[in-house]
Every structure is written in C-alpha cells, then in structure tokens.
Specification:
By secondary structure, this protein is an alpha/beta fold. The chain has 9 helices and 8 strands. The radius of gyration is 18 Å and the shape is globular.
C-alpha cells in the first residue's frame, strides 16, 4: 500500500491535481470529446503562468512531458521537481534542437503526450493580459512533421483566465545566475506571477499530421508546411481564447 501511494504521489498528473486543489483553482473544460484516445499527441497551448502545466494535465487528464527553458533544470531543488514532473529542459543553444527532437520523438513513438508552449519564454518574464497571445515559434511544427511517428495528432488548446491574481516573484535578472546567455533575462522588471482562481480550458479541433506532409518535408515545401501549421494553430488558439473570454 505504501509503495503504491508513493508511486501515485509522484505521478505528474497527481501532482498537478493536488497543486490546483491546494490553490483552490476552478477549471472548466470544453471540447473533451476532441482528446485523442489512441494516438501520439502534441499539445500546443498559449502560456502566461507557471500553473499552465498543471492546468493542462488536469484538464486533459493526461501526464504530459513539457518542453521547458534550460534554466529550469539548473535551479537547485526546483530542478528535481522538473525531472519528477517529466519535463524536457532544453539544452544549451548549440545542441538544443537535436537533443529535444530525439527525446520528444522517442516519447511520441511510445504514445506519450508532449506539450509545447510556442510563445516561448517571453510571456513568463513580462506582464501579459488574459486575452493576449504572442507570436508562435515554429519548433513544434518542425517536430510534428519530422518525427518518425505514425498517427500523430496536434491538439491546440486555449487557457483563458477568468479570475486571477497578479503579483511578482523576483527581479528577472536573477535568472541570469542559471542561464547567463539568455538575452530575455537581461531586463530591469520583476518576474510576474499569475495565479489562476477560475480558468477556462478550450480544446480545439485535432490536427492529424498526414503522411504526405511528412514526405514533403524538404526544401521550400517543408517551410511552407511549417508556416501554415504554425499559423493555423495560433489562429485556432486565438479564436478559442476570444470565445472563452
């Protein structure tokens, strides 16, 4: 019994649910019927709060391996939590993409869910409005089209805070202690902290990555597919966000 409890209590989904319960966060979910049952899933979402990881896991009822910034794996104690939650900290810039691609592809081949916030780190180091969304980076689209995975589904999801508390943690420049090469950390403002009280999670239409798209992943056609996929996901999430708020 004790071993079972310890195994359960270190499960990322359990940790996420416990965190939200402790903070008293209420979650409403729409589009549950769109969650794929038997496919590799790449979850793509907007991002404003450290709570987004827990919110997505609880809403989708899935343990999800999230890509996260390099520094998160370097912070003492916090790095242990990152590992326990199954995060995928990005490496140093020179080997960042290849390492992440290999790890994410292996997990997807085993029907594990991968989570990516295409807005990157920017929303986490500056204040943003609940209805705002930044420009999407294209890495998730490259992963979806290059990964040697059959029946891969991209699932766009919008997180809309209806009630939240906004405060701050510490000067953003302190993060340079863990990643001095990140230009976003060279700014005078404080690191914002967004705590959700009530949040709406809206699940968009699943996008099946076609075999033809994977076969055409080369040259200019690859760039066209990537740009179209990135734009489509951003527009879908922006639309879901507007409907929720």
């Amino acid at each position: 019994m004790l071993v079972d409890f310890l195994n359960y209590s270190t499960n990322p989904l359990f940790i996420s649910q416990h965190l939200l319960s402790t903070l008293g966060t209420e979650i409403s979910v729409s589009g549950k019927d769109r969650i794929p049952a038997n496919s590799a899933v790449l979850v793509v979402s907007n991002h404003r709060s450290f709570m987004d990881v827990a919110v997505l896991m609880a809403a989708l009822k899935l343990p999800i391996h999230f890509a996260c910034h390099h520094y998160m794996g370097q912070v003492p104690l916090f790095g242990d939590l990152v590992t326990q939650m199954g995060f995928l900290p990005l490496d140093e810039p020179k080997q960042r993409y290849n390492t992440f691609f290999n790890r994410a592809s292996l997990l997807l081949q085993h029907r594990q869910a991968i989570g990516i916030f295409p807005e990157g780190t920017m929303p986490m180091v500056q204040e943003t409005a609940p209805n705002s969304i930044g420009k999407f980076q294209r890495g998730f689209a490259h992963l979806a089209l290059r990964a040697p995975v059959e029946n891969l589904i991209i699932l766009p999801v919008a997180i809309a805070a209806r009630q939240e508390l906004n405060t701050s943690l510490f000067p953003v420049r302190w993060l340079q202690l863990f990643d001095p090469n990140e230009p976003l950390f060279d700014r005078p403002n404080w690191h914002p902290l967004v705590l959700y009280h009530q949040v709406q999670v809206s699940i968009g239409e699943p996008i099946a990555v076609a075999s033809a798209q994977k076969q055409d992943y080369h040259g200019r056609q690859a760039l066209n597919w990537v740009n179209d996929l990135t734009a489509h996901c951003q527009q879908e999430i922006q639309s879901l966000l507007k409907q929720a708020l």
